[in-house]
Amino acid sequence: MRLSIGDNDFLDSFEHLWEKDIDENGTSKLNLFILNINANSFDYSCLVRNLRDPMIDYSVSRKIKEMYKQRPGTLAHEAQKKFKEYINNTGELGELLLYCFLETHLNAPKILSKLELKTSTSMYVHGADGIHMLKLKNGNYQLLFGESKTIADLTNAFRDAFTSIHDFKNEINKEGQEKSGINYEKSLVYANLDKEAFSEEEKEFLKKIIYPSRERDFEVDDAFGIFVGYEIELTEHDKKLPNSEFRAKVKEKVSEDVINRISYINRKIDEFKLYGHSFYIYVIPFTELDNNRKSIIKEIT
């Protein structure tokens, strides 16, 4: 199945500092990216430029994109309107960033986004932040459920992400609504495959991905994609450093921040007994997280 994003320009917004195994078996990965640095500041304008096209891919289905392929201006307008309405109710930039990383870095095609499944401002606010599919080297597949958190404190962001995953897996809904959780999510995806421009062959294949079938000659396991955006503080002294020293200091600081949380991540996996699942985690540090998140959303809508 093809990716919904047309190119990998999104990744040009960042420097990929490293990828590390979370577990001893190497089934879960932790990736640290930082925004490009220009004159001792994160280059948010570059990220904004490289989010405009993926915002369209995220907000509208392949079917809608196909309908408007000769009318790019109308397509952009429809996507912006849809994204703006959705984002005004959630304020969550992380879902879009997670979608971009799963498609461009992990090469895991979107099946359906949370925005596509959401039918009103009061429905479907507790589900996964998008559903993707990943083909493994051994020919088997993973069904990826997304979870994104943008919280200033990194530990709290990881805590909330894994708590949400635990509740999602165990179909715990703190709002008291009956329909929620991983099995309900699969039923929603199954029922909404027609929203995407999948061929009949692709639809039949995706149905086998979602639910077991005796005709299936591959295995499928549930996995999770996680995006975490957190806040780092830079002093006036830091900002006055020579450019090369500033870059080195920021990279050292954020690398230490994230490496020091690996043991915490494993503790949460143990606490919630999330064994058997693969986790693909993407972390980005922000300065003035709340202000820059709002500014990015405003710029792309």
From TrEMBL:
It comes from the Bacteria. InterPro entries: AbpA_HamA_C. Pfam families: HamA. Residues 15-300 form the Anti-bacteriophage protein A/HamA C-terminal domain. This is Anti-bacteriophage protein A/HamA C-terminal domain-containing protein. It comes from Maledivibacter halophilus. The lineage of its organism: Bacteria, Bacillati, Bacillota, Clostridia, Peptostreptococcales.
